Fold this sequence. Notes:
heterodimer, A: about 325 residues, alpha/beta, Rossmann fold, Helicase, Ruva Protein, domain 3, 2 domains, five-stranded parallel β-sheet, two-stranded antiparallel ribbon, 14 helices, about 50% helix, B: about 300 residues, alpha+beta, Immunoglobulin-like, five-stranded antiparallel β-sheet, three-stranded mixed β-sheet, 8 helices, rod-shaped
Amino acid sequence: MDRVDIEEINEKIKEESAFIDLLTLEVNKVIIGQKHMVERLLIGLLGNGHILLEGVPGLAKTLAINTLSKAINGKFSRIQFTPDLLPSDVIGTTVYNMPKNEFSIKKGPIFGNFILADEINRAPAKVQSALLEAMQERQVTIGDETFAMEQPFLVLATQNPVEQEGTYPLPEAQVDRFMLKTVIDYPKQEDERTIMRNNLNGQYEIVKPVVTMKQILKAREVVKTVYMDEKIENYILDIIFATRFPERFGLENLNPLISFGASPRGSINLATAAKVYAFIKRRGYVIPEDVRAVCHDVLRHRIGITYEAEAEDVSSEDIINQILNKVEVP
Amino acid sequence: MNRFLYIFALFISAFTIAQTEVKISADTNQAFIGDIINVNLQVHSSEQILWPDIEEVIAPLEVQKLGSIDSSSVKRKNVYHQNLAVQQFDTGHFVLPQLPFVSLQGDTFYSDSLAFSFLAVPLDTTNAIFDIKEPEKVPFNFTEAKPYIYGFIALIALIVLLYYLIRRFNKKDETIEEEVIELISCEIEAISALNNLESQALCENGLVKEHYVQLTEILRRYFDREYEIDTLESTTDEIIEILSTMKLDSVLVNDISDLLTEADFVKFAKSKPDKKTNGVFMRKSYAIVDDCHKMKEEERDV
């Protein structure tokens, strides 16, 4: 690949990423002050990954995915996870059809393009497992029939970090299946004023479909062509290996704080997310800035911290910061 | 006449009886309980005497020490002599009974009996309870302590040696590097590295990417030392952001930004600038190091 190829990719990206501005504008009509979350939704959408959102109630998590769904004209489903939810409530079941004297399949709410799994940690493990299996395999088996999920298929699961009583925390193996874990914070004061005024005046913007599913699927193909140099690959691997063997990077102090490092799925997702980020920034190649921009969201749920780290109030976030400040940028 | 005969017979018999004489004496007849009373037994006899089993006879008094029976001969008479020490652990009056000594002819001779009083020890209840005897202090013996002292010294020496070796191995590479760096100032090091890079003529040999990798590394290392910022662990945007806050000329910052961005393009996007551009950036690199150092010097002077 030479410079001409990169320019070709750049041209292609210019063409295929034109919808990003339109989509962002449309979503921002309704979602105010959550630029980071909207950007991460796009990364998940274009990177064919799923997103785990963590934030206190009332930060427009549901509204964001609903708006995105409307802007793309996709099928949106919301599943409120509760302790008495059953796997069949999520994926569907077979029901007896009396006139035909046979069992017919009733598909569950998971058969959609944009799925909001609200408060995923409130449902027991078997329900979480059913959802996460569908997320990973991108197919669901009901009875003796297997159904492929419609594309795009984006699951946005939410977790509330403050109420932990009566919850079933997601096991590490299942959390790993989320491409990104995004922590949402409160909007800025200025943004919140706008939100408040819009609500008081009853000014609810109507979201129109501005992008087609076809465009999204095409953009996904272009994302795959974004060039990633070997030096960037090595940088990603250095970061991932620093989570596993911090002592090799002069971070001996992290050894007692990390119980397990990021999995190979972590490096795959970090590379994919960096490529999507470069695409969103209209670049046909990945630079270290792209890796660093998505690093926290890709790795924060993939690094296990020890009791010692908890006792010292050190989070996976702090560990990632230390790693990024130590690993040499190419 | 008969009268004189009776007197003589009595005198003779008295003389004959007086052939065996038993004497007993004690150093005191009053003592506190547990105290020792020394008793002395003496038997003067012309005959051989059977000595009684004293320990059995004197109960309830207790024999604390029983000496051996000594014998000597004085004026054809045997003198038997024994010392014993008795004690008692009850208060009250006790009698050492008459001790029987039997001659070979079957005659029994008795000693006198002795009376002893054993008194209770008066207690001073006004004072606190105290030890009757202090614990005995064992005198320090250097020979016994020697192995422990030598062992302790050896352990300390071993710890110091290990600590020294660990530190030496850990710091070996660092020290060498630091020594070299400390000797050369940052701008001289950067200029020398740029000269070296230019002399390698990597671009002319088609190694453009390698040329820009080395070029950016030289500049980043220079910024790292000159401004004490972690440029090696920072991205281009971050470096420019930090340099922008350092009172540098905006044109200079733009030049640095252009160079690093172009280098990123070469490094990560397979860009291959032409010979002229490479030359321009090479000259800019010298100028950047020179200008940055001059500004830093001026800042120091101010």
